[in-house]
Amino acid sequence: MFTQELFELALNITSPWIISSVDFDVEKQKLDIHIDFERGSEFEYTLEDGTIGKGKAYDTVKKTWRHLNFFQHECYLHARVPRVKREDNSIRMIQTPWQGKMNGFTLLFEALLLQLCTAMPVLKVSQIAGVSDDKLWDMLERYVDEAVDQMDLSDLNMLGLDETSKAKHHDYITLFVNLLTRKVVYITEGKDSKTIDDFVGFLTTHGGEPEQITDVSSDMSKAFIKGVKDNLPNAQITFDKFHIMKIINDAVNKVRIQEVKEQDVLKKKKFIFLKNNDNLTPKQLSILQELKMSKINLKTIRAMHIRENFQEIYNSDSFEEFQIKLQKWYFWATHSRLEPIKEAAYTIKRHWDGVLRWWHSQINNGILEGLNSIIQAAKSKARGYKLAKNFKIIAYLLTGDIDLNSLNRNFHKLT
């Protein structure tokens, strides 16, 4: 009797539920806990209109749920679950306080599985928990879909968007991020202007309006620019400075590739010119200093100086200073006689307003780069993410602005 009372406390089993028996099978390493209810008990039910009623058991159905392991023992709960006759004369099975969203799992077991899936590949969780990975994906999809449905976007006004590959051969999804909460709010396949159309549909069904979006950070994709202009009338685009730096870095590297054919000293030194000085090793810094001090007038060194000068623009103390520095940089870059650098400068000129907008918005896609890294790292460790559905599930699970605690009261206890 003491054992049954102990398990009632451990499982938070309260009236009218009682534990009727506990069976250990040492050989099978299995623990079976049998739950019953007190004779004459009444059970609450909820009608479709929200009305709450009570009724006695009309009949019962035997059900089993997988629960958290008890040391090395797999643990299962077994119960006779009542069906009650409701006020509308319909007969429905009641919900037990321990049952999860998946048939055959308890809420606590699901909470554990959710936590494990945020920390390791789904296939690994499947092996540890002894649950098929298909059933795990079904569980994750159910939780994620419900959490996404509950998302409230009424306060969203600063948006970041970027594409990320979900498979080889240029297969993409686009991430939409709330730049204030630093969480993904929407994921859709593709990277064309239609992704913005899809987002607006999602926004309006989750308490938001297109007019409330005031700032968008993105790369210089023509499709994204068109999508924002067509669908978000009050949004001003800030072109992501990390994307701009990538354009300039690519130009520096093109200069190096052209020059390395004539200057052997540049061979195997690609990253010395593409990294910031703070990220170089002492050896790389020493090599770079030698190249700067040499009598060889290296074009790659000039290109690198132009890149460093562009970075310095973002340290301006006022918008006027920012604008003047950008204009001076553009003049220098377009008169550098370095064709790749000139092309990069012309690209920036074509997007001039969005580059200047940074001073007022102070936003960028650095957050998205970090979230993208998390998703790509997870993708590389688990099979099944190649499916668009599974990829979106794991992206929401790891980076989404979703509240799983509201769906499973036990989840926060394991985080």
Give an overview in words.
This protein has 415 residues and is α/β, with parallel strands linked by helices. It folds into three domains: 2-145, no CATH class; 158-240 and 364-381, Ribonuclease H-like superfamily/Ribonuclease H (Nucleotidyltransferase, domain 5, 2-Layer Sandwich), CATH 3.30.420.10; 241-361. It is built from 16 helices and eleven strands. It has helices spanning 2-11, 107-119, 122-129, 133-149, 194-204, 222-231, 241-260, 270-274, 282-293, 299-313, 319-334, 339-350, 352-356, 358-361, 366-381, 388-399; strands at residues 17-25, 30-37, 42-46, 52-70, 73-85, 91-93, 158-167, 171-178, 183-189, 215-218, 236-239. Helix 6 links the parallel strand 10 and strand 11. The longest helix is centred in the middle third of the chain and has 20 residues, at 241-260. The chain is elongated.
